[in-house]
User: Fold this.
Amino acid sequence: MSPIEQLISNFQELVAQVPEIVQPFIIMLAGAIPFIDGEGAAVIGIAGGLHPIFVAVAAATGNFLCVLLVVAVTSRTRTAIVDRRPSPVGLSGGAGARSSALGESFQETAATKPKSKGRQRFNRWLVLFGVPGASILGPLAIPTQITSAILVSGGTPRRWVLLWQAIAIVIWTTIGTVAAWATLTFVVEVS
Assistant:
């Protein structure tokens, strides 16, 4: 038995020790973790010997629930920040007034901070392809949770973000599930 087959066999035994009622929650939790997302959780479940459709549904559900939470928190945060801005008329005083020196200082700091390669790539895709393209291509650069936070904080409507993130999660989880299943079935020949 090759080392890969042994590893998969050990993982299948570990998953088999967990009660069946708990298995979908393990896959859902794995899907909710950034950088693992639905596709990584699908690989974990398939390697654990679970049925591919069962794994895909659990992984996508966990990933989407986390994205839903991120969108809700980011949207509330954005609303709170936008509501605190001073009015464009220049009225002083009141709850929303700030000193212009503080605002200018913040803008200078934000402008000088370098962006990561993943964020630069994502921004290029957003400009080229809009929200649908950035949502679908986003997981190639950064996790879906970060993608959704960027889109909502930039002012994209929550429903639009959730729709396209759901589509992207289904696409990428399906690709991860099929790739893991095909690899284990045809390449490694584990049943």
Summary: The radius of gyration is 21 Å. The first helix runs from residue 3 to 17. Helices lie at 3-17, 23-32, 37-47, 52-84, 100-112, 117-137, 144-153, 158-187.
